[in-house]
């Protein structure tokens, strides 16, 4: 027989659950934390608890009578919320809720969304951009990497207007588009070089103007 706890022992162990206790240094947990570059273990614990609550709620809804109108209504509302949050791919049936895990929440974190939008090469770089204040979601600047992006807000993830990274991106896109215009103009010249076709001057990038010739006369 185990002896009865003393008064001070009861006080110290009051909030300890000896039945449902979490194993420290869980291998799966460590893998998830490293994969998504999560620094706060508390975030993973919250995601794990939320995902478990979602699965339990879905199971309770499935246990209801199929003819019960409340079951259909509850299923629709739960699937709608989970789909809007980006935790499930479709709103087909409740079986999708069994695939909601802590990793599902991790994929909705702002760094993961930036990676899917190709705004960063890796999660580490995305986290750095966020913490330095280069990223905004809608009109609000977000500096917390744990920010969860809903499906509707995913299209509003962009760079801050004053960000130097945004300027670099714009400059790069301008150079690429200018190079495309130049190559397109050269392609036209090559295709029509041996034909008597009238051309007009073609304006290229950075104010350059190319005057085209036909066989007999200069045009422009």
From TrEMBL:
<protein>
    <recommendedName>
        <fullName>U3 small nucleolar ribonucleoprotein protein IMP3</fullName>
    </recommendedName>
</protein>
<dbReference type="GO" id="GO:0032040">
    <property type="term" value="C:small-subunit processome"/>
</dbReference>
<dbReference type="InterPro" id="IPR036986">
    <property type="entry name" value="S4_RNA-bd_sf"/>
</dbReference>
<comment type="similarity">
    <text>Belongs to the universal ribosomal protein uS4 family.</text>
</comment>
<dbReference type="InterPro" id="IPR001912">
    <property type="entry name" value="Ribosomal_uS4_N"/>
</dbReference>
<dbReference type="InterPro" id="IPR002942">
    <property type="entry name" value="S4_RNA-bd"/>
</dbReference>
<keyword id="KW-0687">Ribonucleoprotein</keyword>
<dbReference type="GO" id="GO:0034457">
    <property type="term" value="C:Mpp10 complex"/>
</dbReference>
<feature type="domain" description="Small ribosomal subunit protein uS4 N-terminal">
    <location>
        <begin position="4"/>
        <end position="107"/>
    </location>
</feature>
<dbReference type="GO" id="GO:0019843">
    <property type="term" value="F:rRNA binding"/>
</dbReference>
<keyword id="KW-0694">RNA-binding</keyword>
<keyword id="KW-0539">Nucleus</keyword>
<keyword id="KW-0690">Ribosome biogenesis</keyword>
<dbReference type="GO" id="GO:0042274">
    <property type="term" value="P:ribosomal small subunit biogenesis"/>
</dbReference>
<dbReference type="Pfam" id="PF01479">
    <property type="entry name" value="S4"/>
</dbReference>
<dbReference type="InterPro" id="IPR022801">
    <property type="entry name" value="Ribosomal_uS4"/>
</dbReference>
<dbReference type="Pfam" id="PF00163">
    <property type="entry name" value="Ribosomal_S4"/>
</dbReference>
<dbReference type="GO" id="GO:0006364">
    <property type="term" value="P:rRNA processing"/>
</dbReference>
<comment type="subunit">
    <text>Part of the small subunit (SSU) processome, composed of more than 70 proteins and the RNA chaperone small nucleolar RNA (snoRNA) U3. Component of a heterotrimeric complex containing IMP3, IMP4 and MPHOSPH10. Interacts with MPHOSPH10.</text>
</comment>
<comment type="function">
    <text>Component of the 60-80S U3 small nucleolar ribonucleoprotein (U3 snoRNP). Required for the early cleavages during pre-18S ribosomal RNA processing. Part of the small subunit (SSU) processome, first precursor of the small eukaryotic ribosomal subunit. During the assembly of the SSU processome in the nucleolus, many ribosome biogenesis factors, an RNA chaperone and ribosomal proteins associate with the nascent pre-rRNA and work in concert to generate RNA folding, modifications, rearrangements and cleavage as well as targeted degradation of pre-ribosomal RNA by the RNA exosome.</text>
</comment>
<dbReference type="GO" id="GO:0030515">
    <property type="term" value="F:snoRNA binding"/>
</dbReference>
């Amino acid at each position: 027989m185990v002896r009865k706890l003393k008064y001070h022992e009861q006080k110290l162990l009051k909030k300890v659950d000896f039945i449902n206790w979490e194993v420290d240094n869980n291998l799966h947990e460590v893998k998830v934390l490293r994969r998504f570059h999560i620094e706060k273990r508390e975030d993973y614990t919250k995601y794990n608890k939320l995902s478990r609550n979602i699965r339990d709620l879905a199971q309770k809804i499935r246990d209801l009578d199929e003819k019960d109108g409340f079951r259909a209504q509850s299923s629709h509302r739960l699937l709608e919320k989970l789909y809007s949050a980006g935790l499930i791919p479709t709103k087909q049936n409740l079986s999708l809720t069994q695939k909601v895990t802590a990793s599902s929440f991790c994929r909705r974190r702002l760094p993961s969304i930036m990676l899917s939008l190709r705004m960063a090469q890796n999660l580490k770089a995305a986290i750095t951009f966020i913490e330095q204040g280069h990223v905004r979601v809608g009109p609000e600047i977000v500096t917390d990497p744990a920010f969860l992006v809903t499906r509707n807000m995913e299209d509003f993830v962009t760079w801050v207007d004053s960000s130097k990274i945004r300027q670099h991106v714009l400059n790069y896109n301008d150079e690429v588009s200018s190079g495309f215009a130049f190559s397109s103009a050269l392609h036209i010249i090559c295709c029509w070089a041996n034909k008597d076709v009238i051309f007009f001057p073609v304006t290229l990038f950075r104010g350059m103007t190319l005057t085209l010739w036909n066989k007999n006369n200069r045009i422009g």
